[in-house]
Amino acid sequence: MTERQLIQELVALREAQAPPSVAAGALLRTGLADAYFPLETPLGRLYVAHNEHGLSAVLYAATSNDFERAFQAELGRRAFPQEAPEGLERTLREWLSGDLRHKLRFDLRGRGAFQQAVLFKALEIPYGQIRPYSWIAREIGHPNAGRAVGTALARNPIPLFIPCHRVVRSDGYIGNYGLIGPEAKRRILEAEGVHLGSLQALAQRGVRYVGSDTTNIFCFPTCRYNSRLTERHRVMFSSEAQARAAGYRPCKVCRPAA
What is the pLDDT of residues 175-199, one digit of tens each? Predict the structure, then answer.
């Protein structure tokens, strides 16, 4: 399409004379609207929106019309149904299974610097592991901003793929989830292999960290190195101070402490 033809389409759209197909095409090509498609996930059918910058939204909605209304209310632009681009749906399914060999891009335009820092840090939490809100706050250089981190994650426009479900309360309980609710958070974590029953039992006992008496290293309970520990070599700690007083140092992989 030439520039002249595109301008003609936009003029027709402005004058409300363009047929729906032309209106959608013009808005999508000029970046004034996003495309979307339904995706079956462990949480049921969700709608995924995207544009040339990457994924822009993942929302639950009862119908496509409901999604379009919610998308426009949240992002201020329209969304039109289209077939998923070649390879994108496959990549999304790979991500849901923990396979990150293919990269995804995310459109976080309009989000503040703090929220973007929070969301990109959440992307670093491995599949099947969890971290507390305070971990993200410390990692992004705002150690006292745990509550603000929670607010930023609650407004995550691209849940599941920016995995805010892997961030939990500092006391070990899973907390809320903005996509559908805490039960959905529980389901997706269990689908990733997180043993929530064991974690809740640790939380009830006040255990925050697990150490190895062979390496004198302490980790978050879901750190992959804990899976190698036999019960006889596990040492439980209720705080970083307790672990350090016992002569343990923090894991360099899960980074439970500064």
Answer: 888 778 888 999 999 999 999 999 9
Q: Which residues of 13-29 are buried (b: 16+ CB within 10 A; e: fewer)?
A: beeeebeeeebbbbbbe
What does the alpha-carbon distance between residue 246 and residue 48 come to, in Å, rounded to a whole number?
A: 48
Q: Of 6, 70, 8, 9, which is closest to residue 34 (Cα–Cα)?
A: 70
129-177 residue pLDDT tens? 999 999 999 999 999 999 999 999 999 999 999 999 999 998 888 888 8
E strand intervals along the chain: 33-41, 44-51, 54-59, 78-81, 131-132, 167-168, 209-212, 217-219, 234-237, 249-250
In the block, tokens 């639950």 appear at 60
State whether residue 236 is helix, strand or coil: strand
219 labelled catalytic: no
Domains parsed from the chain with CATH numbers: 31-96 (3.30.160.70), 111-197 (1.10.10.10), 205-258 (3.40.10.10)
Prediction pTM value: 0.86
